[in-house]
Design brief:
Order of helices and strands of chain A: EEHEEEHHHH
CATH architecture of the largest domain in chain B: 2-Layer Sandwich
Strand order of the largest sheet of chain B: 3-7-1-14-11-12-13
Number of helices of chain B: 20
CATH class of the largest domain in chain A: Alpha Beta
Largest sheet of chain B: 7 strands, mixed
Largest sheet of chain A: 5 strands, mixed
Helix content of chain A: 25-40%
Radius of gyration of chain A: 17 Å
Shape of chain A: globular
Structural class of chain B: alpha+beta
Number of strands of chain A: 5
Number of domains of chain B: 3
Oligomer: heterodimer
Number of helices of chain A: 5
Distance between the termini of chain A: 55 Å
Distance between the termini of chain B: 60 Å
Chain lengths: 167, 787
């Protein structure tokens, strides 16, 4: 038998906006972002930390938002796909994903993009094997991955190109 | 295509998908993203047992739990939702008893839904489920395919005298005689894992009943909205006109989301009962336990060959895995029917005997999964071909070439009776061997073998059923349309709207529609708006399954585009006092066919017709909206063909397999967008590679699914997958003007067979030969005699 859930007020920044909310202590961050704030670009595929579809940035680190409680995000800055469009790496990735048809159903895509953006921002152009390794925590059941690897590779090359303005 | 079609403009071009940016920005709207005013959330209490009687259900505490609005048992739901029977007339003799949305009296598989709870939040509904007390009487469990068949096995359905659900045999020619006269016989017992689709978005539904007008609206993440409309109406006793099904964005399906599932029907029952919107979305554990499963065969197979490598005869015995019921409305025995119907399919052998047996057992239900039966049929056939080639000392590619259905023999009748229009097998094989540089790869393999590196090359030819006729389901009594339609209209601004009766689950159906419509009409692609997935606004049709989207709906779009173009040109000719034959549409303007000079834009034509019709010639009304339909009726299905190759490295110490490269050449007829086709092929291939190496639902003898999490049921991730080279041969079908066949399933059909062959090729120096997938390290080490 569960006792009625305890509620705690948290204060955090989500996609640049200050948010103060009372949340159930048992609510995970993904449910909070989706259900309470309406950021439905964060998807739930397994809720046990394997599929990667709920990946968001928490204080600049990629996390599985199904494995983080909303209360753990108190005082943190959260970035979801809806707030990542201003990053140059994300703009490049979105353009290359479009060009290469690197998404089919789109369910894994926001998290795949956020994960890939961290790699693009590392500057050095990775090998295809390194790209595949980096993306190996994000399940895509549709594409066969190759178009995703192609798109990430192209975005890495564009981002690292010397003398190019990325702003 | 004819001279009047401006086909060159978009058809055949690798264009990026219109609308993809929405998904890339996280703006997709999947079922779980929808909210409705005062919406409730459903949770389902499921059976922990694989087989048990329900002696009593005490839901009193649950009803009083915080946030709970409604609790329904099997008996409650049965009062408003009729039971269904998962048998199909196209599988004659198949038995399946009535099944209820929620179990009544007895449960027959782990995870079977028993009680449905609607509460303010999902968490509250799940809390309440924990307060329900059920008294069970456990019954003997039958969880093994072969045990279930045995006389004296515990019965799942006491009203039947055995667990046998379905049997089928095929007898063509003289297989016994072929074996008696063979130079060599190869045989093996093949086993393929039971799979789950693993759509990343689990199944989900939102149901809302408006008591004011008696209208039920269901948002269903699925593939076939009109089928769902029919079935929901049937089960709940609602007239078709009062059921609307809307398919929002769908996060993968692969044949999963075209069944009736008890938990989803229970959510509808809760919405009808509470008069409030109700959402149910399966969590991953529920998905593992209660999504329909597929594959799962034990095939004992033999092949007789002559000294020159001619296949003289085949003899197969398939036992298919199953659940306690047939799934509804597709039954689930298509799995085995297509295995025995397609074994030997690429080859001209005429001596074939096959037997299929399917028995009820206490495991999850079986339903269609991408390329139903094909990967298993292909694996069995192709593994035997390579065994025979090894035994006879013939190169495996040459062995196939000697046995393909001859190019001049079409139309060809398969041993199953199905007619094949036209294949390109030899051309596909030649192209594949060139693309992979087969001879150089063989040389490399020999060189590396000397250094103790064990690489293998495996091939797998396949044939694939696409673009099905009504013979597949409609003739069997299922309300599944074999026809599709496109309603197309010219809008006042000169844009074109196309409402089509198919859906888009990520394969790019919308883009296919847009490319065909824009090409034939002669308008820029960005002016074509495609509308799918709503029974209120789309024309009637079958939806997406069986690789039918382009083959069936694409032809309807082509026909509608031609009809609208003809109407527009007739209208323009009237205004311009010209002849329609002298005009054509280019880039959204009516032009002279002779010199290309623009005469009048589509926007001007539309605005005149809509805003100022008084200026039109008396008695003339332009018809700027048309509907055209198409059903493929020339063949049972339109067969495609192709061939896969896999290059692997096996570590004989650890038993690990590394996929180095994979190649596919396939022939789906006319290609509308090669980029989308290639990624369909690759995505399918990766599902087949997962089957080859990782995927298997493992049940305990007690009928418990032992690996029902993504940490335990392994699926391919980017790191393990190779680059996949895709090539095409284009042999358009003559059954349509468009010439397109299906491409959605060819990728999966041959992939696992190619990997099995490659692994066996790598292990040949050790004398080890496997016949079971997934090819786990343990199985490989066992085959090597190391464990």
């Amino acid at each position: 038998m569960h006792e009625p859930a305890e509620t705690v007020t948290i204060d955090l920044t989500v996609n640049g906006e200050r948010v103060t909310r009372g949340v159930a202590v048992r609510q995970h961050l993904a449910d909070f972002l989706r259900g309470e704030l309406g950021f439905t670009g964060t998807h739930l595929g397994c809720e046990h930390g394997v599929c990667g579809a709920c990946t968001v940035n928490l204080d600049g680190r990629l996390v599985r938002s199904c494995l983080v409680l909303a209360v753990q995000a108190d005082g943190c800055a959260v970035e979801t796909i809806e707030g990542a469009g201003g990053r140059e790496a994300m703009r490049l990735l979105q353009a290359e994903f479009h060009k290469h048809n690197a998404a089919q159903c789109g369910f894994c895509t926001p998290a795949m993009l956020l994960t890939a953006a961290a790699l693009v921002e590392q500057q050095a152009v990775p090998s295809r094997e390194e790209i595949r390794g980096h993306l190996s925590g994000n399940l895509c059941r549709c594409t066969g991955y190759q178009a995703i690897v192609d798109a990430v590779e192209a975005a890495c090359v564009a981002h690292a190109a010397p003398g190019e303005s990325h702003s | 295509m004819t001279a009047g079609d401006n086909a060159a403009s978009y058809i055949g071009r690798a264009l990026p998908r219109t609308g993809l940016n929405r998904l890339l920005n996280g703006q997709g709207q999947y079922v779980d993203d929808l909210t409705r005013p005062r919406m409730l959330h459903a949770a389902i209490l499921r059976s922990p047992h694989a087989h048990a009687k329900i002696l009593s259900i005490d839901a009193g505490d649950a009803k009083a739990a915080p946030g709970v609005v409604c609790v329904m048992t099997g008996e409650d739901v049965a009062k408003i939702c009729a039971p269904w029977v998962g048998a199909l007339g196209t599988a004659p003799g198949m038995k399946s008893p009535q099944q209820y949305a929620l179990a009544v009296d007895r449960v027959r598989y782990q995870g079977e839904p028993v009680v449905a709870i609607a509460a303010q939040t999902r968490a509250q509904a799940e809390d309440a489920a924990e307060r329900i007390r059920i008294e069970w009487e456990e019954l003997p469990v039958v969880a093994d395919e072969e045990e279930a068949l045995k006389p004296g096995a515990p019965l799942l359905h006491p009203e039947y005298d055995s667990n046998i659900c379905y049997e089928q045999t095929i007898n063509v020619g003289d297989a016994a005689g072929a074996f008696a006269g063979a130079a060599a016989v190869v045989e093996a017992t093949f086993r393929t894992g039971r799979h789950t689709h693993m759509s990343l978005e689990p199944r989900g539904i939102v149901a809302e009943f408006s008591s004011g007008d008696g209208q039920l609206t269901v948002w269903h993440g699925g593939q076939s909205p009109h089928m769902m409309q029919s079935l929901i109406g049937l089960l709940f006793g609602l007239p078709e006109s009062q059921v609307r099904v809307i398919v929002p964005d769908v996060g993968g399906s692969f044949g999963l989301k075209i069944q009736i599932f008890g938990d989803e029907m229970a959510a509808i029952a809760l919405a009808l009962e509470t008069k409030r919107p109700v959402k149910f979305v399966a969590d991953r554990l529920e998905a593992f336990q209660t999504d329909v499963h597929a594959r799962g065969h034990r095939v004992r197979a033999r092949m007789a060959v002559s000294a020159s490598g001619e296949v003289l005869g085949m003899d197969v015995d398939d036992i298919q895995t199953f659940g306690p019921f047939g799934s509804y409305p597709r039954a689930g025995v298509g799995e085995g029917r297509q295995v025995i119907g397609l074994i030997g399919g690429p080859y001209r052998n005429r001596n074939y005997t096959a037997r299929l047996r399917v028995a009820f057992q206490n495991k999850g239900l079986i339903g269609p999964y991408r390329a139903v039966g094909h990967p298993v049929a292909c694996l069995v056939t192709e593994a035997l071909i390579e065994r025979a080639a090894r035994k006879l000392g013939i190169d495996p590619a040459e062995m196939r070439r000697r046995n393909y259905i001859p190019d001049d023999a079409y139309p060809w009748k398969l041993n199953s009776g199905a007619m094949v229009e036209n294949l390109s097998q030899a051309a596909a094989l030649d192209k594949l061997l060139r693309r992979m540089d087969y001879n150089a790869l063989r040389a490399e393999q020999t060189l590396l073998r000397a250094k103790g590196i064990h690489r293998g090359i495996g091939l797998a030819s396949f044939i694939e059923m696409t673009t099905p006729s009504s013979g597949v389901y409609g003739e069997g009594g299922a309300p599944i349309a074999a026809q599709d339609a496109c309603s197309m209209r010219l809008n006042a601004g000169g844009s074109v709207s196309c409402a089509v009766s198919v859906t888009d689950t990520g394969q790019g159906t919308s883009m296919m529609v847009g490319q065909i419509a824009a090409s034939v009409l002669g308008v820029p692609l960005e002016r074509v708006r495609v509308m799918l997935g709503d029974t209120d606004t789309m024309p009637y049709g079958g939806g997406n399954w069986g690789s039918r989207g382009t083959g069936v709906a694409g032809e309807a779009v082509l026909l509608a585009s031609r009809a609208l173009r003809d109407n527009i040109l007739a209208y323009a000719a009237t205004l311009l006092q010209s002849s329609a034959d002298a005009l054509e549409i280019r880039n959204g303007e009516v032009c002279n066919r002779s010199d290309g000079a623009a005469r009048i834009s589509l926007a001007e034509l539309a605005q005149l017709a809509y805003f100022r019709p008084g200026r039109l010639p008396p008695g003339f009304t332009p018809e700027l909206m048309v509907t055209r339909s198409y059903a493929q009726r020339d063949y049972g299905s339109l067969f495609t063909n192709g061939v896969h190759a896999s290059y692997v490295e096996v570590d004989p110490v650890t038993g690990e397999v590394k996929l180095l490269r994979h190649w596919v050449v396939e022939d789906c007829g006319t290609i509308i967008n090669p980029m989308l086709v290639d990624e369909q092929i690759r995505g399918g291939a990766v599902q087949g590679l997962g089957a080859a190496l990782y995927e298997e639902c493992i049940y305990t003898p007690e009928g418990q699914l032992g690996n029902a999490s993504l940490a335990d049921y392994l699926v391919p991730m980017a790191g393990e997958m190779p680059d996949i080279d895709v090539g095409h041969i284009e042999t358009p079908t003559k059954a349509s003007n468009l010439g397109a066949k299906g491409a959605g399933e060819a990728g999966v059909a041959g992939a696992s067979g190619a990997v099995l062959n490659a692994v066996n090729d790598a292990l040949a120096p050790f004398g080890a030969e496997l016949s079971e997938i997934p090819l786990t390290p343990e199985r490989i080490l066992r085959a090597l005699g190391k464990v």
